[in-house]
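User: Thanks for the earlier help. One more: Cyclic pyranopterin monophosphate synthase. Can you show the sequence and predicted structure together?

Assistant: Of course, both are below.
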Amino acid sequence: MDNSKHSGNAENAQGGLTHFDAGGQAHMVDVGAKNETHRVALAGGTIRMKPETLAIVQSGSAKKGDVIGIARIAAIMAAKRTSDLIPLCHPLALTRVAVDFDIDAASSSIHCTARVETYGKTGVEMEALTAVQVGLLTIYDMCKAVDRGMVMTDVKVLEKHGGKSGDWVAG
């Protein structure tokens, strides 16, 4: 592989991004010197669907089973496997993953919220985001036979607590 185009100070060349070494190559960030702290992230997202699809979810009559229950399990499993899915993401021992789904009949949508916690050296934002995405994708998968036009939207970190950079709440 020709590395000649990857020279100089990668941190400056990449605008302060930290997943690049001094030669500009991607690497997993060394968090060994960081202190272990309680870290929490909250992420959310929404899936919009036809009112009749939402009625099927609410009634529990989907042909594939309990849509919300299965989506919750899938989201929790995804949070636990984030480092297998996202390159350069640290494997973490999660201490808590809580996933909630709120149905909004007025907008014919389901909002997913994932709260992920650990006591570690790096944050859990990626785990919370992955949980939300997989939870919403599971709803899509279980309902696509009756509604292929569902839209997943507004997936984002809502809060982050702990660690060197402290707390952050979406505005």
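User: Great, one quick takeaway?

Assistant: Residues 125-143 form the longest helix (19 residues).
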